[in-house]
């Protein structure tokens, strides 16, 4: 356990000490449940979508979860298939961006990963998703594909009032060849979050990006507030708002979502995001199986 904690500390030190590539690209939001809370999910993630949002989140929640969903946004989309258990997770997700920052190129990425977990004492969990990433960059009728390896890491500490989480996605910042000899990188994203148990059936959450991303809309550093409630035995409601705190447009976007138990341990999820045309407006649907 000490070795795991030391490795996580070293990784975080490398994150905050390293430089950011000049031409980088943030990923679309993955997971319908998370999008329904406007992305205030880093400390909430406790199903298989934690393999993307915070790998340490698999240490809590259902013993087994399977997630299949898709979000479709203005110029981006994300599809997720993930399986999670407390000791291990498997995931595949695809993201597509139709307009990269500063160009008319498009990028499609395919991520296949395995998530491993380690508990450090009773209240802290550390997780990492090791993944192969295939990126396809298209421009002017030509496309180039490249496969790279990458890592996401996450921490979650749990207390009586809630949880605090920290995640680092795209730790290695893989870059993919583009037509014409250029490259496009997935930018490292460091995100922190807190989730508070307002009541036994209601959780309020807040997220903020520690790093700033380069997007077609300008510099981007997101903050988000969200809430998830379970007013009925087999129904969940959620909502939230996110906005940009960097030099670019504020672009506030609201989100509402819901989940309904449809059969046994199967839940149907849906979300709608709306607001500024500079934000990520769109919708998503999916299914979750929890045991």
How would you describe this structure to a colleague?
With 291 residues, this protein is mainly beta. Helix content is 9%, strand content 58%. The chain contains three helices and 19 strands. The strands form three sheets. Strands 2-3-4-5-6-7-8-11-12-15-16-17-18-19 form a 14-stranded antiparallel beta barrel. A three-stranded mixed β-sheet has the order 1-10-9, with no helix packed on it. The protein has a two-stranded antiparallel ribbon with strand order 13-14. It is globular, with a radius of gyration of 18 Å. Residues 1-23 have low confidence and may be disordered.
Poorly predicted runs: 1-23
Number of helices: 3
Largest sheet: 14 strands, antiparallel, barrel
As a whole number of angstroms, the C-alpha radius of gyration is: 18 Å
Give the topology string: H per helix, E per strand. Answer: HEHHEEEEEEEEEEEEEEEEEE
Kindly state the mean pLDDT as a whole number?
88
DSSP helix fraction = under 10%
The global form is: globular
Extended strand count: 19
Fraction in beta strands: over 45%
First-residue to last-residue Cα separation:
28 Å
Structural class: mainly beta
The order of strands across the largest sheet is 2-3-4-5-6-7-8-11-12-15-16-17-18-19
